[in-house]
Specification:
The complex is a heterodimer of chains A (176) and B (169). By secondary structure, chain A is of the alpha+beta class. Chain A has three helices and five strands, in the order αααβββββ. By secondary structure, chain B is of the alpha+beta class. Chain B folds into two domains: 37 residues; 113 residues, no CATH class. Chain B contains three helices and eight strands. In chain B, the strands form two sheets. Chain B has a five-stranded antiparallel beta sheet. Chain B has a three-stranded antiparallel beta sheet with strand order 6-7-8, with helices on one face. Classes of the chains: A alpha+beta (176), B alpha+beta (169).
Amino acid sequence: MKFGEGLVMLTKRTKQIKGLSLVETMVAIVVLSIAVIGASGYRYYAALDTRKADMRMTAARVALLLCESWRGVKGDETYDPIVHLGSELLITADDSNDVAPDEPGDFTKLGSYSILLNGVQCYSTMSWKDIAADLRALNVIVSWPPRATRFESTSESSVYPTSDNKIFKLTTYTEY
Amino acid sequence: MYKNKFKARSGFTLTELMVSTVIAVIVISGVGILMVDSQKGWNKMYNRAYGDVVTSSYVARLKFDSITRKADWEKYDIADDGSWLEVYYYADSNSTEVDRYAKFSYDGSSELEIEHGQLDPKETLSTSNVCGNVTYCMFKTQGRSVQMILTLDDGTQSATVVSSSVMHN
């Protein structure tokens, strides 16, 4: 063997050990991260949207329940949903004016209520306005905090900023 | 001689194999856990939207709404304890008087039932089951409107459906 031949062999051996460079590894990590974050995001939003739809549905049912029950007695100003439905639903008066939505400007308020149904905390304000002889408009507004988690009892619920609350407004008309 | 020796060394060392195996196990476990978790989450969401209890509650609500909305508001009958509700309606557009009744009843078992029948003479025409898994059912009236508060529970999932409708005829 000539002088230096061993060194050439060593160099060749070093070349033969092919691995991943730092750049390749980093690119792989970035690609993997994007895939994992994407998958997590998809799952997070799927769960969140299901919950939002659930809350919207519950709030709509509550709004319709209050609206149609009140309309059943022709918008009587002595109607009290707590007396009527209090034994079946977790419904309490909520006159703090902090959480329940405001009634429309020229309507007379019947009351504000806090209702818990299927783990969804809703706040409702009922109001009326006589718009013609024998014709009364009944307004029911239901708001719910979309970021709230499920509650099992009213004592667990917490107050969320009202500005973020979603709102349903129902107006119906009745002769009285 | 050197050449042959170096050639024989090509391949993976035990350490390399072990490290790569460990990494592969971690990655595969991670992906597996992620997939199982996704499946569980999907099942949970699917049940919340289309589970037996939820779909049954939709059916109960739709039946209650569709029957009571066309009912006659002048006459209805309800149990003192709210366990049943009987409403009256016109069979079709040719009816000159109220000639049909529908009775929703919950007897304390797990079934909510509806009975349709004709009046004068009063005779049962059909009885059908609206939904099972009922744990609570209460009917109420308020002026011209009737309400149903129904709780369904199949042991894994619970849903309360509230419904109110004004009787229009």
